[in-house]
Sequence to fold (128 residues):
Amino acid sequence: MKKLTTEKGEFANYSSIVKNSDHWDCDGIIIPFTVAGSEGVIEEYIHIPIQTVEVPSSVTPRQTRLALLQVALLDEVELLLASDKAMQIWWEYSLDIQRNHEHIATMGLALGLSSLQLDDLFILASTL
Fold:
């Protein structure tokens, strides 16, 4: 496989890259110079797969609290919990914290965290 590197970026994973008068032809895909730039280097492309990390379905309460402490959110979570007795009981007495539990979604929204950020917190927690 080949890649084209220009001043505008990298265009990779093509078996054939040909420079024409006003565009690059990458496996039949026309990339105008206005998009890719007219000067470039064609070289071998070695695809290195990115190792994916699976989001754990649950973590321990200890792991959860340590992750929140590490990202400076533990105090905010404790303030949120102080206003909801049922959620506070769930938080204090759960044997595990489930990623897909409704309280996690509720806390995430209250903290302004996206679903991806919550996933990242669970991944972090699983390492602690």
